[in-house]
Amino acid sequence: ARAKGYSDHLQDNVMRGLIQQEQQGKATKQIPPAFETIKAEGSPDHLKIKASSLHQQWRNVYRWRLEGRTFEEIADFLIEEGYEDRRKRKGKYLPIEINAKYIGRHIMNPLHCGLYVTEGGKEPRKADMTKIYPEIYGEEFPVVVSLEEFKQVNPEMFSDTAGGWKPSSRRTDYPLAGALLNKDRSDRTFPL
Question: With bands split at pLDDT 50, 70 and 90, how would you rate the model's confidence at 119?
Answer without folding.
Answer: low
